[in-house]
Structure formats: structure tokens, C-alpha cells
Amino acid sequence: MTMILDELNKVFCRVFHTKDLVITLHSDASSLDGWDSLTHVALISETEKHFKITFSFNEMMQFRNVGDLVKAIEKHLQH
Amino acid sequence: MHFLSVPFFCFLAVAGFLSHFLPYKQRWKLLLILSLFYIGLWNPGALLVLIFSSLFTFYTGLLIAQNRKFRVWVYLLSVTIQVLSLFLLKYVESESTGLHFLFHEAGFRLDLILYAVGFSFYTLQHIGYITEIYYSRAEPEKNPLDFLLFSSFFAKFSSGPLEQAPKLIAQFRNPSADLTLIYEGIQRVVLGIFKKMVLADRLAPSVARVFEAGQGQGSAVTVAGACLFTVQLYFDFSAYSDIAIGAAKIFGISLTENFDRPFLSTSVSEFWRRWHISLISWFSNYIYYPLVFRLRRYKGTAVLVGILVTFLLSGFWHGLGFTFFIWSLLHICFLCFESLTKNIRLNASRSIPALIYKPFSILITFLLVCFSNLFFRAPDITVAKQLFRQLYGPLFQGKGFMEGFLSILAGGGYQEVLFNFYLTLMLVGGFLILEKHLLKPLLPSRGLFLRTFFLVTLIFVFGVFKHAEYFIYQQF
To answer: pTM here?
Structure first.
């Protein structure tokens, strides 16, 4: 999980155009400045590209924080 | 039976009283009988349309869940039928289309069949219900009576809030036993009556004078009219939502909050997260997100297409007139602009002190929303064009502040009339400042009776009792 979180941090830095961003499993739209629907779509798309996975629509609708995203990535990588 | 009528409050009191004699798990039966009675009393035709539409949706939901082979066709057919009936209802009702008169002259009152109170609200909820089942995010309901109660529940029937079936039906089956909800409900209903009769309806004549006066008004009074209408619309619709949420609470049911102090929004996108929340959630869940998800590889373009389609459909849902089309186009432009300038605005918010940046953003957002509402309120496109032209005309049309501005808004230049107008502004301003505190429910030991007595006194002293039963959003 820590490895996925580290990799995901890189994706977040790329999407948010910053090098200093440190995400945790509890990070969400209210704790990260600028995480709106536009950023959300870019995050999903970049995450899929980075981990070479494809999320379903239902999965995307259930992402409430970084923890949910990490769990979904983990599930896809196991299969 | 309208929300702001003596029969409705008698109905609410008797229903609330009766329900507390029943075991919690049996209350849904009483709510169903009362809801059907309430709608039937209002319009028997509407009741028949509602029952037919609910049963159609209920059995379609079962069919989608059980039939793996044809589920996609059943789903598409059902959505098409619901969207077509919604379109037909709007089309027949819209006098601008000409179809209205065509049907009447042919002696076929299609509007009587299709005119159904609350139709456009429960149709969206029905489409949401079968979509949730189709995408396996919800199980179909097993009991048609449960589903009928979900569609017909009198508190939310005519203008929402829009709800999701599983959440609401679970509450009907197990209403909250917390008695403080009854106090909260009564306070919310009183607050709604206050907002409607003391604030919205006192603003209505000033707004009507600006929007219905015809040509020859200055830009200042046009801007003031648009701003006052936006505030009136907020109080009118949030009053309706308060009464709906309050009435439901009396029966132990919590409905979705529809407003979250929208005039504090620092952007138009934030405004839409705080205004008519249940409708915007519906459009986000069933139009915006599915579309953007499919186009996600195009990132920014996906979001722009999502905004475009969502707001065009939202404009259509409000009405077929050209004014609603322009209103939706304006919001599309605002939101696209915000999407494209997101990083610039984020950097600006970091470099400019919040004490300056935030009030400035709130003001700009408010003015943009008011500008769009010029088209939302205008009765037709000719008036809308006239109002738009007035915006860049002389400030007071060469008449001076008193004659060209104040007396139009106040309805005359007499001291008594002006005092009345200032009083309305003071009540509105005072309420907006204290709104956060007034929305917090109080307990009997903590000033509930005092505050309720104070609000009721204000309603009787300053309330407008004429035409109070008409809510702006009931036309949609």
C-alpha cells in the first residue's frame, strides 16, 4: 500500500503542477486546494495511465479520498 | 392544497398527531394514504399519472434486474419513454411552441392528461432509480407500495428535494424515533413561512416593477432588479425546501438539504454546489460524470463537453423558452471560463490577501448569477433583450436618483412607501447576516419557544398574506 501511495503521489504532483505535494490516505477534495471535478477527471485518467489499469464508472463514483483510490488500484493490480 | 394554506397546516397537524399513535414501523402506511389523499385533493388527474408512472418505473426496475439478456433495451426504452413524456409536457405547456393552441383547437386537452403537479420532479427521480439498478448500484424495491410512497411523499412531491429511493424507503420503514426531530421540523416550517411571506413576497413587487415595466428604465434600476430577483428566488425556493424538510422531520424523515447559503460562493461552480443541491446532484450523477468518465482521456475537453451538455439539459428542464436557453448558455460560459482559468485563480488566491480576494470573488460571483437571472426571470425574449439593452444605457435615464431608481423599486416616492421598502431591505439584510444561526435548530430549554414566537410575530406584522400560496419553482 505504501508503494502505491508513493507512486500515486507522483501522479498527484504532476496533475497539481507542484513538487511539494505530500498526500496521505485521508487526503480528499476538502484538504487539497484545487481538487475539483476537472482535477478529478485528470487524476483518474493519469492514474489509469501510470498504473496501466482501467477503472469502472462505479469505482470512480465511489472515490471519496486517496485511501479509496489506493484500495481500487491495489485491487486492479492483484488481478 | 398548497404549502402556504390553512388546510395544509391543519393537514400537517392532524397527520403528525395521528402518526404518533402508530408503531414506528407502521407509519409508512399512514404516510402513503395521506400522500395519495393530498395529491388527489390537489389534482385527481395528477394522482392517476403519478400512480401509473410509479408502477411503470417499479416494474421496469424489476425487469432490468431480472432480465440479463434484454436489460439494456428495457432500460433504454424506459428512459426514452420518461424523457419523451417530460419533453411533451414541457412542449405542450409552452405557449411559445404553438402546440398548446393546436391541441386545444383540435378539442384534445393533452395538457389535462399530461399536466401533473410534480411530474418533472418525480420523473427525474424515476430515471435515477432505474439507472442505479441498471448500473448495479442499487437493488430494485420489492414492494410497489414502498415505491409509490417514495414517489408520492407529500412533503417533497411537488418541487423536491430530489431523493434516491433506497435511502428514503429505508427511512419510511424505520423512521427516526428521536423526538427532537419534531421540534426541528416545526422550527424549519416556521422559518420557511417567514422566508416566503416576510422576505420573498415583500421583494416580489419591486422585482415585478423592474421586469414588467417595459422600456425606459435606467441601468441602475435594472441591476438592482436582477439582484433583488436573485435574492427573492433564493428565499422563495429555499422557503419551499424548508417547509418540505420541516414537514418530513415531523414524521421522523430526513430529506436532502437543497441550499447551503449560496450567496457566500466564491465561484459559479461553488454556487452550483450550494444552490438547488438535489437537482445539481442528479445532473452530476446521471449526466455530467458518466459523460466525463467516457471522455476522460481528453481531460479538459471532457469537462467542457460535460458542462455544455449538463447545462443545456438543465436549461431545457426549466423550460423550452429562448430565455432559459440563454440562461444555460451563460452558465456554460461562466463554468468553462472558470475551468480554463483554474490555475490562474488558484495562484491569485494564494498571493492576494484573503480579506480582499474572498469578498471580491463573492461579489463577482453574485453579480454573474444576477446577470444570468435577468434572462431566467424575463417573461419572454423581447423583454430580456430590452433589459439587456438597459444595462448599458444611462444610469437613471436622466431622471435623477429618486425618480429614476428609488421610486421604481419602492413603488412611489411617498415617505410611507419608501419606509416600507427600506424595511424590506433591512429584514432581508438582517436575515442573511443571521441565517447561519437561524438555521441551527434549538431545543425547548434553549430558547426554541422564544425564537419561534419572535418569527411568528414578525410573520403576522410584516408578512404578505396575498398570493402567498404561489411558489416560483412550482412552475417547473
So the answer is: 0.88
- How far apart CA B353 and CA B27 sit, in angstroms, is 54
DSSP, collapsed to helix, strand or coil, labels residue B306 as helix
Q: List the single residue in A with minimal CA-CA distance to B342.
A: A34
Cβ–Cβ of A41/B299 closer than 8 Å? yes
pLDDT at B109 > cutoff 80: no
Closest-CA distance of chain B to residue A42, Å: 5
B303 touches chain A (CB under 8 A): yes
pLDDT score recorded for residue B33:
93
Q: Hey, which residues 2-61 in chain A have their CB within 8 Å of chain B? A: 17, 33-34, 36-39, 41-42, 44-45, 48, 57-58, 60-61
Cβ–Cβ contact B415 with A under 8 A: no
Q: H or E element: which one contains A67?
A: helix A66-78
Give the residue-averaged pLDDT of B227-232.
96
Look at residue B98 and tell me whether its pLDDT is greater than 60: no
**How many angstroms separate the CA atoms of B193 and B218, rounded?**
34
pLDDT of residue B344: 87
Q: Is B79 exposed, middle or buried (0-12, 13-18, 19+ CB in 10 A)?
A: middle
* B136: contact with A, CB 8 A cutoff: yes
Confidence check: pLDDT of B102 > 60: no
Q: What is the residue-wise DSSP string for B138-193? A: SPPPS-HHHHHHHHH-TTTTTT-----HHHHHHHHHS----THHHHHHHHHHHHHH
Cβ contacts (< 8 Å) between A61 and chain B: which residues? 137, 285, 289
> Does the pLDDT of residue B350 top 60, yes or no?
yes
Task: Name residues of chain A where pLDDT drops below 50.
Answer: none
Q: Which chain B residues have a beta carbon less than 8 Å from that of A42?
A: 299-300
In chain A, where are the structural domains located? 2-78
Output the nine-digit C-alpha cell for B87: 419533453
Under the banding of pLDDT at 50, 70 and 90, the label for residue B426 is very high
CATH of domain A2-78: 1.10.1200.10
B302/A57 Cβ within 8 A:
no
What value of ipTM does the predicted structure carry? Answer: 0.84
